[in-house]
Amino acid sequence: MRHVWQTLAAIAVLGALAGGTVVAFGLYNVSARVGHLPGVSWLLHTTFRNSVRLRAEKPDDMPDLRDPALIELGARHYDTACRTCHAAPGEAQSATAAAMVPAPPHLDAAVQDWQPHHLHWIVANGVKMTGMPPWPAQRDDDVWPVVAFLTSVQRGMTDPEYTALTRLPEGKAPQTYCLGCHGQGGSAHVPPLGHQSAAYLEMSLRAYLDGTRASGIMAQAVGEVSPEALDDLALWFAQQTPEPGPFPDMPAELVERGRALAHAATADADVPACAACHGPNASEASELFPVLTGLPAPYLRAQLFLWRETGRGGSRQAELMRKAAQNLDDSDISALVAYYATLQADESDMEHE
Ligand code: HEC
Ligand code: HEC
Ligand code: HEC
């Protein structure tokens, strides 16, 4: 038995020495031109596929992946973040992308074999040692728009459909890029910006830039313009006339419950009612407290879950908001969303309390 152990130990030492020599003298050729040794590509790719199938879990709360607003948001993000490597539907990949080792598959091929939860896992986690990057924020819910887009590619999205979906307004000003998503009052998942103060918008853009407010989509978007342009963009958007808001139909009892909750004193003496900070008739309003009137319901809902589950983040004032959200249950959130999403701007002048 002792012999066996001694032999194994000797083999291990020789192996380590051989490995060390290869590393120390640069004997391994890292040239991507040469490609991998025979069989290595197959080994890595098979490991990748099996690893995804093992780890990706089907969530209980998948959003509606056929929601056109979700697909458009995903397509617009894809256009700046992923297209350089995987190309658009019906478009050839660039020579440089095609020369990568391993080469990123063309979009049409990349989505073929996967179910939505697999695609979510791949886009959230990336693939080590391949150039496929992970999602640039510690947050999983904002990966779903990209998955919604990828599944519509599976269903056969055409080149003209893609072009129409990702079209930008005319002009060269930096805000034309932002208006692709934030134009016309935003969408169900993209907040309109004209309601907010320049101070709040500017603070939010800096928070996306330094990661204190996590969003893979906005982290990519702020990187598309120069940091010096951010203050001007905040000012420009704050000066736009706010769109009146979608004002969805909501059950009257739910809105009533939301109204009561928004005005009720909280259990924590340090935390005032929502309305004290966000209105209507806010008594403690500051330029850094966002206006909620006219924001779309799905966006409000997503943000309240983020505040409660992750503490969201943004300014130094975020701590106040974190406390205000920490004890809300799901039905409180539904009621508050119903109230603020249907609150007409002029109601704040009519209500006297
Ligand atoms: C810098 C280049 C690069 C960028 C940017 C990039 N990818 Fe990839 N992607 C790759 C490479 C390389 C692979 C192949 C990994 C492998 O085969 O092991 C890959 C694999 C994938 C796959 C799995 C395809 C398969 O082999 O089954 C999907 C899906 C995918 N990427 C989607 C995206 C999305 C969505 C984005 C943007 C959020 C993105 N990628 C950004 C390089 C990139
Ligand atoms: C691909 C779509 C997309 C583009 C392009 C985009 N945004 Fe956004 N923006 C979003 C989404 C989605 C959110 C919500 C993110 C979150 O959950 O925090 C958002 C949030 C914001 C917020 C926070 C608003 C609030 O009420 O808290 C600001 C400010 C903002 N964007 C400004 C900009 C500016 C300025 C640009 C151009 C440089 C831009 N965005 C480009 C999609 C986009
Ligand atoms: C003490 C003041 C305060 C109270 C009370 C408060 N908030 Fe906030 N809220 C804030 C601040 C400050 C922010 C922005 C923080 C940041 O981004 O750094 C915010 C952000 C939000 C946002 C995100 C808006 C956007 O455009 O992204 C929502 C939604 C929200 N609050 C809802 C509520 C609700 C509902 C309540 C009551 C349960 C509440 N808030 C109570 C101060 C407050």
UniProtKB/TrEMBL annotation:
A Pfam family this chain is assigned to: Cytochrom_C
Q: Which UniProt keywords apply?
A: Electron transport, Heme, Iron, Metal-binding, Transport
Q: Name one GO molecular function term.
A: electron transfer activity
Electron transport is among the record's keywords: yes
Q: Which Gene3D superfamilies match?
A: Cytochrome c-like domain
Highest taxon listed in the record's lineage? Bacteria
- Per UniProt, residues of the Cytochrome c domain are 69-241, 253-344
InterPro entries recorded? Cyt_c-like_dom, Cyt_c-like_dom_sf, Cytochrome_c_Oxidase_Subunit
- Can you say what this protein is called? Class I triheme cytochrome c
Protein species of origin: Pelagivirga sediminicola
